[in-house]
Amino acid sequence: STPTNDAFKAGFVAIVGRPNVGKSTLMNHLLGQKLSITSRKPQTTRHRIHGILTNDEMQIVFVDTPGIHSKEVRAINERMNKAAISALSDVDLVLFVVDGLQWREDDLLTLEKLSATNLPVVLVINKADTIKDKSQLLPHIESFNESFDFADIVPVSALRRHNLERLVRVIGDYLPVRPAIFDAEQITDRSERFLASEIIREKIMRTSGDEVPYDLTVQIDTFKDEPAHQDPETGKWRRAVTFIDATIFVERAGQKSIIIGDKGARIKQVGIDARKDMEVLFDRKIMLTLWVKVKRGWSDDERALNSLGY
Ligand code: GDP
Ligand code: MG
Ligand code: K
Q1: Does residue 167's CB lie within 6 angstroms of at least one atom of ligand 1?
Q2: Phi, psi (deg, nearest 5) at residue 60
Q3: Is the shortest distance between the CB of 126 and ligand 1 below 6 Å?
Q4: β-strand 217-226 against 241-250: which pairing, if any?
Q5: Is 262 helix (H, G, I), strand (E, B) or coil?
Q6: pTM: predicted TM-score of the whole model, two decimal places
Q7: 248-262 confidence digits (pLDDT tens)
Q8: N or C, which end of the chain is more exposed by having fewer CB within 10 Å?
Q9: Which residues have a Cβ under 8 Å from the Cβ of 292 and sit 6 or more positions away?
């Protein structure tokens, strides 16, 4: 069932900003569900992820962009840049997210790109909880306003969910009146396969800290649903279960042993944590098997990228 009334609004909103300003956290907390992955490591998000927020008045389709990078060192970074820019071609509004009062060169570069699009841009000053002296905020808002013609400026704390209702209202001001684009029940247009791979990637990032570079990829080899059934031997009913086999590709043998950990302890923990998240998100029992393989130089190889679906 999709809500519709004459004043109903719907549209696409891109979340843009340099790595680690809190874009994924913002989208997740706006949606109230964990869809886009987050970590302290930059570049966790490589894909465009649509998160969909539907209430009685509007449907906001969020695009969590991979961030626009100033240094296009390798093929994968170039791909991420293209994805970030193309994400802007079909949106109604841009949320430009910055980290508190910090304002870096990357922010200015992003803003330059945004000014070329003619889209309305709302400046979201995130991590407001880290600004000890709130009186600093006003002069900063004024100087932001001088540097760019923002549609609005909204300080928030994505992490503490502060001022997010106001942000939703501001977004609503810039969405066109039109019926819902997706079913209200739909929370993402990404497949469960994709979400599964993102969850695994997040767990590796979290358990391996800075030892593992972000240029690893997770390929879902099997995603098989087995419906609830009666065991022919014991007669007992078994719950529905989804079997997921995934391969984690890294560039070097050293990275492989870091991910596997001492006697396999780390990969085991990754598997446990990832399975728990998947069971909550997919709402059923999951059997997860993980493999780690070395795929030398894949991030420099366009063909290898293509074969992995980038
Ligand atoms: P992204 O790279 O822009 O998607 O950033 P993430 O959403 O992955 O967040 C990067 C880091 O900033 C994570 O450690 C978040 O917990 C943290 N973070 C995000 N929002 C806030 C916030 O409002 N306040 C604080 N203190 N930290 C935040
Ligand atoms: Mg992110
Ligand atoms: K991040």
Answers
A1: no
A2: -105, 125
A3: yes
A4: antiparallel
A5: helix
A6: 0.65
A7: 998 888 889 999 999
A8: N
A9: 247, 248, 250, 256, 259, 260, 267
